[in-house]
Amino acid sequence: MEIAKHYDEIARCNRCGFCQVACPIFRATGHEAGVARGRIALLRGLIEKRVPWDEGLQEPLFNCLLCGACTANCFPAVATADLVVEARREYLDQSGHSRLLRLLFHHLLPYPGRLRLAARAAAAAKKTGASRVARALGLLKIFGRDFPRAHQIVSRFPDRAFREKVPPGVVEGQGELCIGYFVGCGTDLLSPEAAEATLGVLRRLGRRIHVLANGCCGLPAMTYGDRAAAQALAARNLRLFEAAPFDLLVTDCSSCAAFLKKYPSLFADEDPRRAAAEGHAGRVRDLVEVLGRGQFVAPSIGPQEKIIATYHDPCHASRGQGLVREPRAVLRALAGVEFREMAEADWCCGGAGSFALSHYDLAQQVLDRKIDNLQRSGANLLVTSCPACILHLRHGIRRRGLPVRVCHIAELASPPEPRP
Predict the structure, then answer these.
(1) SS3 268
(2) CATH no. for 292-412
(3) What is the pTM of this model?
(4) Separation between Cα atoms, residue 384 and residue 407, nearest integer Å
(5) Is the predicted pLDDT of residue 317 greater than 90, yes or no?
(6) In a 3-state reduction of DSSP, which class is residue 310?
(7) In CATH, what number does 162-290 get?
(8) Structural domain spans, the chain
(9) Are strands 206-211 and 169-172 parallel, antiparallel or unpaired?
(10) Please, what is the Cα angle at 221 between 218 and 226, to 5 degrees?
(11) 149 close to 392: Cβ distance less than 8 angstroms
(12) CATH class, range 2-95
């Protein structure tokens, strides 16, 4: 068993239970199998052959958000999320990967054009009502057991993806750096306005901006336990990076940024791709790391209405990269905007990529806690730096009927001055 290599790490869990306080899943369900201590005990049982590798493992292994809150509250700092991912990989190697995930990870995510076609088809189905017919016929269940309900999280698709407006290539800027812009799948397809704002920021900072023709960073495949697909996606992107030299590699998706920085860990020490990954990982920047060099403007909320802003920390930004002070500095710099800290700002919103496709009710319980805290803050502007979080937070706000706008932090940056 591959997971057996991590036995010493697993044995460091002293079963104190401090993870219970921080785990969104445990706080929602109260089940020991849904908290880090319970998951670690399960992995130990697998290694010691007290627990069989059977279908009973699927729920405790795959209902984890991988948010990392448990490790942040763990005295021995057991990396439970990483261990769960390793166990998922071994479970799928034994039980088999679904055809749908193989299609997604190997034939769609590496190719932005194909992914846009799939998104366009989904948008057409939603607009024409075909998705309601498919739901009635039970056809949507092939995408996940809860997909018939979870598909409502996306209220509408933008008319055009970012890459349809700005194709890959070089964009001239006004700054001094040469910047590679890594366009995340979610930003491209679901938040093109955030991507356009990001490009405006980068034009101020860089003399040349390479809008890269990158595919998916590989994080979705990795979290589902398909390490081979994640490696293939990373290797494809690394080849692309080599062909477009830059000083910094910037992305406006905190999940992408965190994973790009971890690319070296995907490859063995003797693998030549590891050296390439190490060479680029040090130049990766989450957009919030470079925003401090820019200027910011208050967004439009409503006529005569005071703007009260708060911030949601994506898990891959706060715990994944330690980026907590930077986005708040941006919000505090906005003239005429009152910043209010939201309780449990770093509590996972329940988005976690595609978590809701198979755990919709559980994801909504986690989201409800976040929206409760948002309401208590009194904010009418909720800012974050992750497209998946934006999508899920907007869903929660619609469900409550709250007059709150959600935006990407890039949208607070003023556009570059026009070139003479």
Answers:
(1) coil
(2) 3.40.50.10700
(3) 0.90
(4) 7
(5) yes
(6) strand
(7) 3.40.50
(8) 2-95, 99-153, 162-290, 292-412
(9) antiparallel
(10) 125
(11) no
(12) mainly alpha
Position of tokens 């890039």?
A: 410
Residue 134 is predicted with a pLDDT of 41
Residue 398: CB atoms within 10 A of its CB come to 13
The two structure tokens encoding residue 119: 């998104």
CB proximity list for 228: less than 8 A, separation 6 or greater: none
Residue tagged 């706080």 (tokens): 27
Phi then psi for residue 178, to 5 deg, are -105, 120
Q: For the chain, what percentages of helix, strand and coil (3-state, to nearest 5) are there?
A: 55, 10, 35
- Given its phi and psi angles, is residue 49 left (phi above 0), alpha (psi -120 to 50 degrees) or beta? left
The C-alpha atoms of residue 44 and residue 60 are separated, in whole angstroms, by 14
Q: For position 366, what pLDDT does the model report? A: 95
- Among 288, 245, 283, 290, which residue's Cα sits nearest to residue 263? 283
Cα separation values, 261 from 243, 266, 321, 381, 386, Å: 19, 11, 9, 30, 16
Check if the beta carbon of residue 190 is closer than 8 Å to that of residue 154.
Answer: yes
Fold matches, 162-290 and 292-412: yes
If you search the block for the tokens 């509408």, which residue do you land on?
156
